Amino acid sequence: MDSAIPAFTRALAESAGELIKTERAVLESLETSYKDGVELVTHADIAADKFICDAIRKAYPEHRILAEESAPDMRDISSFKGPLWIIDPIDGTVNYAHGHFQSAVSIAYAEGGRVQCGVVCNPFVAETFHAVLGQGAFLNDKPIKVAQKTELRRALVATGFPYIKGDMTPLVRRLALVLQECADLRRLGAASLDICWVAMGRLDVYYENLSVWDFAAAQLIAREAGARYGHFKPVPEGISEEFHHQNILVANATLYPAMHELLNRADAGQA
């Protein structure tokens, strides 16, 4: 990895954060629409996506970009080993459009099939989570570590809900068992921040199905903070575990196997 990339990534995420903050200054003027009739998108998503992609193309014209709004083609991500940027210009768009503070810019840089550098910036509370592979995780330059809870009954758990409402039975079964066996549940609406909150101890466990731009940066931050990041169902053959987007589970090393067992018990219909 080019040694300049971590600082470039952080500066870019924070600049994009200021852009989306400015764009939302007058909430009533925010332009919104829906992708595929269900997923909210604002003009700020588009503007931030363009701002980030233009900056990367200028600095690293040979690099590939995977961006939620402008370049969402993920077909060969598991096999691609070249320089790759993975971008979510606004994670938590519904929160953003409703004036909530739980939204973030997420930028990850991958090389050799692994995320090397990740930044998640929430401009509304002036928090930037960042990590470089093998160098630890930080919040505004201060080291962070995952919490060390040892019992699910003391654990604060977060998850999310899908835009497309299909068969909700598995989701409801999981929720019921989590509420029964864990301390409490949160649905905060921005996956990248949920995962970063596990990384720094505001949450103890997180699970959900996502898109790769939601978690690419945050999963590195969580791992570098000492969390165990993986999946509570087998990863399909030929799919990179690094980028597999379904059945994601993040927790400390003690809670991870217990939550893994709980979620599979819920899916089997066992109380």
Question: Can you describe this structure?
Answer:
By secondary structure, this protein is an alpha+beta fold. The protein has two domains: 5-143, 2-Layer Sandwich (Fructose-1,6-Bisphosphatase, Chain A, domain 1); 152-267, D-Maltodextrin-Binding Protein, domain 2 (3-Layer(aba) Sandwich). Helices cover 33% and strands 24% of the residues. The chain contains seven helices and 14 strands. The strands form three sheets. It has a seven-stranded mixed beta sheet with strand order 3-4-5-6-7-8-9, sandwiched between helices.
Please list the strands of the largest sheet in the order they lie side by side: 3-4-5-6-7-8-9
CATH topology of the largest domain: Fructose-1,6-Bisphosphatase, Chain A, domain 1
Largest sheet properties:
7 strands, mixed
What is the structural class?
A: alpha+beta
Helix content: 25-40%
What CATH architecture of the largest domain would you give? 2-Layer Sandwich
Q: Give the CATH H-level superfamily of the largest domain.
A: Fructose-1,6-Bisphosphatase, subunit A, domain 1
SSE inventory with pairings:
Blueprint: H1 5-23, E1 32-35, E2 39-42, H2 43-59, E3 64-67, E4 84-91, H3 93-97, E5 104-111, E6 114-122, E7 127-132, E8 137-139, E9 142-143, E10 156-158, H4 169-181, E11 184-186, H5 191-200, E12 205-208, H6 212-224, E13 228-231, E14 248-251, H7 255-267
Parallel strand pairs: 3-4, 10-11, 10-12
Antiparallel strand pairs: 1-2, 4-5, 5-6, 6-7, 7-8, 8-9, 12-14, 13-14
